[in-house]
Write a structure and sequence with these properties.
alpha/beta, seven-stranded parallel beta sheet, five-stranded antiparallel beta sheet, 12 helices, binds alpha-D-glucopyranose
Amino acid sequence: MMQDWFLDAKLGIFIHHGIYAVDGIDESWAFFNGKVSYEDYMAQLDGFTASKYDPDAWADLFKRAGARYAVLTTKHHDGVALWDTKANDLSVVKKTPAGRDLITPYVDALRKNDLRVGFYFSQLDWSHPDYATLRPERHKDDPDESLNRFAYARKGKEDPARWENFLRFHRAQLKELCTEFGKVDLLWFDGDWERDERQFKMKELRDELHFMQPEVVINSRMLGYGDYATPEQGQPVVAPDGPWEFCVTINDSWGYQVQDKNHKSTRQIVRMCAECFGLGGNVLLDIGPYEDGSLQPEQTERLEGLGRWMNKHADAIYGTVAGLPAGLFYGPSTQSKDGKELNLFFFDRPIDQVVTRGIKGKVKRVSVVGSGRELAHRRIGSADWCEVPGNLYIDFPADEVDQDCTVVKVEFEESFSTSLSPGRS
Ligand code: GLC
């Protein structure tokens, strides 16, 4: 069920932590796509130490970054669980030198820091022997060669009884996650695309999840049974329908990858965030720790930089809703839920004044978020006695420009309204 905390939170941190960081290769996809053999991929189990695993330090950093929640890969498509699952043996507890449950300390650290707890969980499991035992309707007659052997049964070899085994295993793991770690605020599913809703029995699953965790928010990768949309990597230009969260990597990879140094700059990340907040969405910003659990320094630096900006402008971010429609202001904006405050985000250095159009409402005060400095403003093309909103001009002093993105707050006497075609024709 959607919860207010999620809509107000705006920023979460996504963590792809798994054995794929040992060799620094694609998380799970490396063997699925044949870049390495399954055996070589699984040999990474021997190198996964989590020797510097310090979720308290993570949580502290996430908090400083301005995040209100985090989502950790409890199990990626490779099937390797980060907790001591009793449903099979494939966990970092039983199969790696790390030798311990990584989920409990993560949950404790988040709770201590007032961060909401999210679990990523892959519905599909390319390691489970009973997983590739079906085909969904749309692949019924496809030739074997076109269907990946980790995902689908060979022709004529479908085995519904073994699939039922898989479902029992799948449910058992989710039951562990939902009952052994206290309250779970967010279940972030992935990998729902290889089966039909009917095969996964998603509606039944959702009911079970709500029974165990009545307040849990569930993302969309539930074949129609989730609470919000998860556009991935491609930043939405217009807001998706309903609540949403943009998940995105800092460089080009979800997990740690040796060769990937293509980290976005802090300024690019700030901009992306501001643009999503302005459309009413959240951002789930991903980091990929090394196998020992420590973080890539470039990613720590980005989170700290983002945090400087988020904290300074907290008042224009948390608890706000989508701002002005396109055309009224040339940039993103957010507004308070009561519509009495409008926050304007600027990425450029204005020549002297900035302007909004089509906004009706008596302005009480205009100020710079962070410094609080009041700014002079005036309307042109309107008057007290007329209906047309005119254009609101705001003076913008050069010495108030923020290094990443300046935010100006306009306070109104009453809730403002907007008009796209003001005036008589
Ligand atoms: C994709 C990929 C996966 C990644 C996820 C994050 O669905 O399958 O590797 O974890 O995106 O959103």
